[in-house]
Amino acid sequence: MPESKVIAIGASAGGIEALRVVLAALPRALPAAVLIVQHLSPQSPGFLPKILERGSTMPVASPVDGEKMRPGRVYVAPPDRHLLVEDGGVARLSSGPRENRFRPAVDPLFRSAALAFGPRVIGVVLTGFLDDGAAGLQAIKLCGGLAVVQDPSEAWAASMPASALAHVDVDVCLPLREIGPRLIELAQQPAGAAPGGERSALIAEAAFAGGHPPPLEEALALGEPTLLTCPECGGGLMRLRGAAPTRYRCHTGHAFTERALFANLAENTESAVWSAIRALREQAMLARRPAREAAARGDREGADHLEKKAADCRALADRMRATQCNLAVDGSA
Protein backbone atom coordinates (compact mmCIF):
# COMPACT_ATOMS: atom_id res chain seq x y z
CA MET A 1 0.00 0.00 0.00
CA PRO A 2 2.66 2.56 -1.00
CA GLU A 3 0.31 5.51 -1.56
CA SER A 4 -3.04 4.30 -0.26
CA LYS A 5 -4.55 5.57 2.93
CA VAL A 6 -5.76 3.68 5.96
CA ILE A 7 -9.06 4.41 7.70
CA ALA A 8 -8.93 3.15 11.28
CA ILE A 9 -12.29 3.06 13.08
CA GLY A 10 -12.96 2.46 16.77
CA ALA A 11 -16.34 1.79 18.37
CA SER A 12 -17.86 0.28 21.48
CA ALA A 13 -21.45 0.32 22.80
CA GLY A 14 -23.85 0.86 19.90
CA GLY A 15 -20.98 0.39 17.48
CA ILE A 16 -22.22 -2.45 15.32
CA GLU A 17 -25.13 -0.48 13.91
CA ALA A 18 -22.95 2.64 13.59
CA LEU A 19 -20.33 0.67 11.67
CA ARG A 20 -22.96 -0.71 9.31
CA VAL A 21 -24.12 2.83 8.52
CA VAL A 22 -20.57 4.04 7.78
CA LEU A 23 -19.58 1.01 5.70
CA ALA A 24 -22.77 1.17 3.64
CA ALA A 25 -21.62 4.54 2.30
CA LEU A 26 -18.14 3.43 1.25
CA PRO A 27 -17.57 2.23 -2.36
CA ARG A 28 -15.75 -0.93 -3.44
CA ALA A 29 -13.14 1.23 -5.18
CA LEU A 30 -12.26 3.16 -2.00
CA PRO A 31 -8.52 4.00 -2.20
CA ALA A 32 -7.99 2.95 1.41
CA ALA A 33 -8.06 -0.12 3.59
CA VAL A 34 -10.53 0.09 6.47
CA LEU A 35 -9.43 -1.30 9.85
CA ILE A 36 -12.03 -1.74 12.58
CA VAL A 37 -11.88 -2.33 16.32
CA GLN A 38 -15.24 -2.96 17.94
CA HIS A 39 -15.05 -3.77 21.64
CA LEU A 40 -15.96 -7.45 21.96
CA SER A 41 -16.23 -10.09 24.63
CA PRO A 42 -13.33 -12.57 24.51
CA GLN A 43 -15.99 -15.28 24.14
CA SER A 44 -17.61 -13.63 21.11
CA PRO A 45 -18.14 -16.20 18.30
CA GLY A 46 -16.46 -13.91 15.75
CA PHE A 47 -19.49 -13.26 13.52
CA LEU A 48 -18.93 -9.50 13.30
CA PRO A 49 -17.32 -9.55 9.81
CA LYS A 50 -20.32 -11.43 8.39
CA ILE A 51 -22.73 -8.99 10.04
CA LEU A 52 -20.89 -5.96 8.65
CA GLU A 53 -20.47 -7.45 5.18
CA ARG A 54 -24.23 -7.73 4.67
CA GLY A 55 -24.53 -4.01 4.03
CA SER A 56 -21.09 -3.31 2.56
CA THR A 57 -19.91 -3.30 -1.04
CA MET A 58 -16.40 -4.18 0.19
CA PRO A 59 -15.19 -7.59 1.37
CA VAL A 60 -15.14 -7.75 5.18
CA ALA A 61 -13.05 -10.23 7.16
CA SER A 62 -10.78 -10.63 10.14
CA PRO A 63 -7.20 -10.64 8.86
CA VAL A 64 -4.70 -13.44 9.23
CA ASP A 65 -1.60 -12.46 11.16
CA GLY A 66 0.95 -11.22 8.64
CA GLU A 67 -1.64 -10.56 5.92
CA LYS A 68 -0.88 -7.72 3.52
CA MET A 69 -3.75 -5.25 3.62
CA ARG A 70 -5.29 -3.98 0.40
CA PRO A 71 -7.39 -0.92 -0.47
CA GLY A 72 -11.12 -1.49 -0.88
CA ARG A 73 -11.23 -4.10 1.87
CA VAL A 74 -12.37 -4.04 5.50
CA TYR A 75 -10.33 -5.74 8.22
CA VAL A 76 -12.05 -6.39 11.56
CA ALA A 77 -10.21 -7.19 14.78
CA PRO A 78 -11.15 -10.70 15.95
CA PRO A 79 -12.26 -11.38 19.53
CA ASP A 80 -9.52 -11.26 22.18
CA ARG A 81 -6.82 -10.00 19.79
CA HIS A 82 -5.44 -6.52 19.27
CA LEU A 83 -5.41 -5.53 15.61
CA LEU A 84 -2.17 -3.74 14.73
CA VAL A 85 -0.53 -2.64 11.49
CA GLU A 86 3.15 -2.56 10.60
CA ASP A 87 5.18 -0.77 7.95
CA GLY A 88 4.17 -1.87 4.49
CA GLY A 89 0.55 -2.43 5.47
CA VAL A 90 1.02 -5.77 7.21
CA ALA A 91 -1.70 -6.72 9.69
CA ARG A 92 -0.66 -8.15 13.03
CA LEU A 93 -2.85 -9.89 15.62
CA SER A 94 -1.62 -9.77 19.18
CA SER A 95 -2.56 -11.19 22.56
CA GLY A 96 -0.71 -8.31 24.18
CA PRO A 97 -1.92 -6.69 27.41
CA ARG A 98 -5.43 -5.27 27.52
CA GLU A 99 -5.88 -1.54 27.24
CA ASN A 100 -8.82 0.31 28.73
CA ARG A 101 -10.14 -3.10 29.85
CA PHE A 102 -10.42 -4.47 26.32
CA ARG A 103 -8.65 -6.62 23.79
CA PRO A 104 -9.11 -5.64 21.03
CA ALA A 105 -8.79 -1.99 22.04
CA VAL A 106 -8.93 1.11 19.88
CA ASP A 107 -5.82 2.93 21.11
CA PRO A 108 -3.34 0.18 20.09
CA LEU A 109 -4.72 0.10 16.54
CA PHE A 110 -4.58 3.87 16.21
CA ARG A 111 -1.01 4.07 17.56
CA SER A 112 0.30 1.36 15.27
CA ALA A 113 -1.42 2.87 12.22
CA ALA A 114 -0.03 6.31 13.07
CA LEU A 115 3.52 4.98 13.26
CA ALA A 116 3.19 2.87 10.10
CA PHE A 117 1.30 5.32 7.84
CA GLY A 118 1.84 8.77 9.34
CA PRO A 119 -0.18 11.40 7.45
CA ARG A 120 -1.97 8.71 5.40
CA VAL A 121 -4.09 7.63 8.40
CA ILE A 122 -7.66 8.75 9.04
CA GLY A 123 -8.76 7.86 12.56
CA VAL A 124 -12.48 7.63 13.35
CA VAL A 125 -14.07 7.41 16.80
CA LEU A 126 -17.71 6.34 16.94
CA THR A 127 -20.17 5.63 19.72
CA GLY A 128 -19.03 4.06 22.99
CA PHE A 129 -18.77 4.39 26.76
CA LEU A 130 -15.66 5.63 28.59
CA ASP A 131 -12.79 7.01 26.51
CA ASP A 132 -10.87 4.44 24.48
CA GLY A 133 -9.63 6.02 21.25
CA ALA A 134 -8.80 9.51 22.50
CA ALA A 135 -5.11 8.76 23.16
CA GLY A 136 -4.88 6.89 19.86
CA LEU A 137 -6.35 9.84 17.96
CA GLN A 138 -3.70 12.04 19.58
CA ALA A 139 -1.06 9.69 18.17
CA ILE A 140 -2.61 9.93 14.70
CA LYS A 141 -2.56 13.71 14.87
CA LEU A 142 1.03 13.71 16.15
CA CYS A 143 2.06 11.75 13.07
CA GLY A 144 0.18 14.02 10.66
CA GLY A 145 -3.05 12.06 10.18
CA LEU A 146 -6.66 13.20 10.37
CA ALA A 147 -9.16 12.79 13.22
CA VAL A 148 -12.87 12.22 12.56
CA VAL A 149 -15.41 11.92 15.38
CA GLN A 150 -19.11 11.13 15.47
CA ASP A 151 -21.26 13.93 16.89
CA PRO A 152 -21.73 12.86 20.53
CA SER A 153 -25.20 14.39 20.67
CA GLU A 154 -26.55 11.68 18.34
CA ALA A 155 -24.29 8.79 19.36
CA TRP A 156 -25.89 5.80 21.11
CA ALA A 157 -23.20 6.24 23.79
CA ALA A 158 -21.63 9.69 23.84
CA SER A 159 -18.59 9.15 26.10
CA MET A 160 -16.00 7.99 23.56
CA PRO A 161 -16.67 10.67 20.93
CA ALA A 162 -17.07 13.34 23.63
CA SER A 163 -13.69 12.43 25.15
CA ALA A 164 -12.06 12.56 21.72
CA LEU A 165 -13.49 16.03 21.13
CA ALA A 166 -12.35 17.19 24.56
CA HIS A 167 -8.75 16.02 24.21
CA VAL A 168 -7.91 16.01 20.49
CA ASP A 169 -7.73 18.73 17.85
CA VAL A 170 -10.36 16.98 15.76
CA ASP A 171 -10.55 17.74 12.03
CA VAL A 172 -14.13 16.60 11.42
CA CYS A 173 -17.13 16.08 13.74
CA LEU A 174 -20.27 14.93 11.95
CA PRO A 175 -23.52 13.05 12.42
CA LEU A 176 -23.13 9.36 11.73
CA ARG A 177 -24.73 9.34 8.25
CA GLU A 178 -22.40 12.07 7.02
CA ILE A 179 -19.20 10.33 8.10
CA GLY A 180 -19.05 7.80 5.24
CA PRO A 181 -19.34 10.38 2.43
CA ARG A 182 -16.72 12.56 4.13
CA LEU A 183 -14.33 9.60 4.45
CA ILE A 184 -14.57 9.10 0.70
CA GLU A 185 -13.49 12.71 0.17
CA LEU A 186 -10.66 12.49 2.70
CA ALA A 187 -9.37 9.20 1.26
CA GLN A 188 -9.04 10.83 -2.18
CA GLN A 189 -7.17 13.90 -0.96
CA PRO A 190 -3.35 13.86 -1.09
CA ALA A 191 -1.73 13.29 2.28
CA GLY A 192 0.24 16.07 3.89
CA ALA A 193 3.87 15.95 4.90
CA ALA A 194 4.83 13.99 8.00
CA PRO A 195 5.52 16.42 10.83
CA GLY A 196 8.58 16.25 13.03
CA GLY A 197 8.36 15.80 16.76
CA GLU A 198 9.41 13.49 19.55
CA ARG A 199 7.84 10.03 19.24
CA SER A 200 9.84 7.88 21.65
CA ALA A 201 6.97 7.61 24.14
CA LEU A 202 4.53 6.72 21.34
CA ILE A 203 6.90 4.04 20.02
CA ALA A 204 7.34 2.60 23.52
CA GLU A 205 3.60 2.47 24.15
CA ALA A 206 2.91 0.86 20.78
CA ALA A 207 5.49 -1.83 21.52
CA PHE A 208 3.53 -3.11 24.52
CA ALA A 209 0.48 -4.09 22.45
CA GLY A 210 2.63 -5.96 19.94
CA GLY A 211 4.13 -8.16 22.63
CA HIS A 212 7.56 -6.54 22.45
CA PRO A 213 7.69 -4.27 25.51
CA PRO A 214 10.50 -1.78 25.83
CA PRO A 215 13.28 -2.42 28.37
CA LEU A 216 12.14 -1.90 31.95
CA GLU A 217 14.08 1.34 32.28
CA GLU A 218 12.36 2.79 29.21
CA ALA A 219 8.95 1.61 30.40
CA LEU A 220 9.40 3.22 33.81
CA ALA A 221 10.52 6.46 32.16
CA LEU A 222 7.06 6.88 30.62
CA GLY A 223 5.50 8.18 33.83
CA GLU A 224 5.61 8.81 37.54
CA PRO A 225 5.03 5.97 40.02
CA THR A 226 1.80 5.95 42.01
CA LEU A 227 0.42 4.01 44.96
CA LEU A 228 -2.16 2.40 42.66
CA THR A 229 -1.92 -1.20 41.51
CA CYS A 230 -2.88 -2.69 38.16
CA PRO A 231 -6.22 -4.52 38.46
CA GLU A 232 -5.10 -6.92 35.71
CA CYS A 233 -1.76 -8.13 37.10
CA GLY A 234 -1.23 -6.46 40.48
CA GLY A 235 1.85 -4.53 39.37
CA GLY A 236 2.46 -0.90 40.25
CA LEU A 237 0.88 1.73 38.02
CA MET A 238 2.58 4.83 36.72
CA ARG A 239 0.74 7.97 35.74
CA LEU A 240 1.84 8.69 32.17
CA ARG A 241 3.46 12.08 31.68
CA GLY A 242 1.49 14.65 29.71
CA ALA A 243 -1.43 12.29 29.07
CA ALA A 244 -4.84 13.85 28.54
CA PRO A 245 -7.11 12.22 29.44
CA THR A 246 -5.10 11.05 32.43
CA ARG A 247 -3.78 7.57 31.77
CA TYR A 248 -1.98 4.86 33.75
CA ARG A 249 0.19 1.95 32.67
CA CYS A 250 2.00 -0.85 34.48
CA HIS A 251 5.42 -2.01 33.34
CA THR A 252 3.93 -5.23 31.93
CA GLY A 253 1.83 -3.09 29.58
CA HIS A 254 -1.77 -2.94 30.83
CA ALA A 255 -3.06 0.58 30.27
CA PHE A 256 -6.07 2.51 31.51
CA THR A 257 -7.55 5.92 31.23
CA GLU A 258 -8.56 7.23 34.64
CA ARG A 259 -12.22 6.44 33.92
CA ALA A 260 -11.44 2.93 32.68
CA LEU A 261 -9.31 2.28 35.77
CA PHE A 262 -12.11 3.46 38.04
CA ALA A 263 -14.59 1.17 36.26
CA ASN A 264 -12.22 -1.79 36.52
CA LEU A 265 -11.56 -1.19 40.22
CA ALA A 266 -15.30 -0.86 40.83
CA GLU A 267 -15.87 -4.28 39.28
CA ASN A 268 -13.03 -5.80 41.31
CA THR A 269 -14.41 -4.19 44.47
CA GLU A 270 -17.84 -5.68 43.88
CA SER A 271 -16.30 -9.09 43.31
CA ALA A 272 -14.35 -8.77 46.56
CA VAL A 273 -17.48 -7.70 48.45
CA TRP A 274 -19.46 -10.72 47.22
CA SER A 275 -16.55 -12.99 48.12
CA ALA A 276 -16.53 -11.51 51.63
CA ILE A 277 -20.31 -12.02 51.94
CA ARG A 278 -19.90 -15.64 50.86
CA ALA A 279 -17.09 -16.22 53.38
CA LEU A 280 -19.12 -14.67 56.21
CA ARG A 281 -22.16 -16.81 55.42
CA GLU A 282 -19.97 -19.91 55.31
CA GLN A 283 -18.47 -19.01 58.70
CA ALA A 284 -22.00 -18.69 60.10
CA MET A 285 -22.98 -22.08 58.67
CA LEU A 286 -19.81 -23.77 59.94
CA ALA A 287 -20.33 -22.42 63.46
CA ARG A 288 -23.72 -24.12 63.82
CA ARG A 289 -22.53 -27.71 64.15
CA PRO A 290 -19.90 -27.11 66.86
CA ALA A 291 -22.44 -24.87 68.65
CA ARG A 292 -24.95 -27.75 68.70
CA GLU A 293 -22.27 -30.19 69.84
CA ALA A 294 -21.18 -27.82 72.62
CA ALA A 295 -24.79 -27.47 73.77
CA ALA A 296 -25.29 -31.25 73.69
CA ARG A 297 -22.36 -31.85 76.01
CA GLY A 298 -23.51 -29.12 78.39
CA ASP A 299 -20.98 -26.48 77.39
CA ARG A 300 -23.42 -23.59 77.33
CA GLU A 301 -20.70 -20.94 77.36
CA GLY A 302 -19.00 -22.48 74.34
CA ALA A 303 -22.31 -22.88 72.51
CA ASP A 304 -23.29 -19.25 73.20
CA HIS A 305 -19.90 -18.04 71.97
CA LEU A 306 -20.24 -19.93 68.68
CA GLU A 307 -23.87 -18.88 68.20
CA LYS A 308 -22.92 -15.24 68.74
CA LYS A 309 -20.09 -15.59 66.23
CA ALA A 310 -22.51 -17.07 63.70
CA ALA A 311 -25.04 -14.28 64.34
CA ASP A 312 -22.34 -11.62 63.99
CA CYS A 313 -21.20 -13.12 60.67
CA ARG A 314 -24.77 -13.23 59.35
CA ALA A 315 -25.42 -9.64 60.46
CA LEU A 316 -22.23 -8.34 58.83
CA ALA A 317 -22.99 -10.26 55.63
CA ASP A 318 -26.50 -8.79 55.57
CA ARG A 319 -25.17 -5.24 56.05
CA MET A 320 -22.61 -5.69 53.27
CA ARG A 321 -25.26 -7.13 50.97
CA ALA A 322 -27.63 -4.23 51.64
CA THR A 323 -24.86 -1.69 51.02
CA GLN A 324 -23.72 -3.37 47.81
CA CYS A 325 -27.25 -3.70 46.44
CA ASN A 326 -27.92 0.01 47.05
CA LEU A 327 -24.80 1.25 45.29
CA ALA A 328 -25.35 3.32 42.14
CA VAL A 329 -22.86 1.69 39.79
CA ASP A 330 -21.96 3.44 36.52
CA GLY A 331 -21.95 0.78 33.78
CA SER A 332 -19.45 0.71 30.93
CA ALA A 333 -18.90 -0.97 27.59
From TrEMBL:
UniProt keyword Repeat present: no
Keyword field: Chemotaxis, Hydrolase
Keyword Hydrolase belongs to the record: yes
Residues in CheB-type methylesterase domain copies: 1-190
InterPro entries: CheB_C, Chemotax_prot-Glu_Me-esterase, Sig_transdc_resp-reg_Me-estase
Record-annotated active site: 12, 39, 132
Gene Ontology cellular component list: cytoplasm
EC number(s) on file: 3.1.1.61
Gene3D superfamilies found in the cross-reference section: Methylesterase CheB, C-terminal domain
Any GO BP: chemotaxis
GO molecular function: phosphorelay response regulator activity; protein-glutamate methylesterase activity
Catalytic activity: [protein]-L-glutamate 5-O-methyl ester + H2O = L-glutamyl-[protein] + methanol + H(+)
SUPFAM superfamilies: Methylesterase CheB, C-terminal domain
Protein name as it appears in the record: protein-glutamate methylesterase
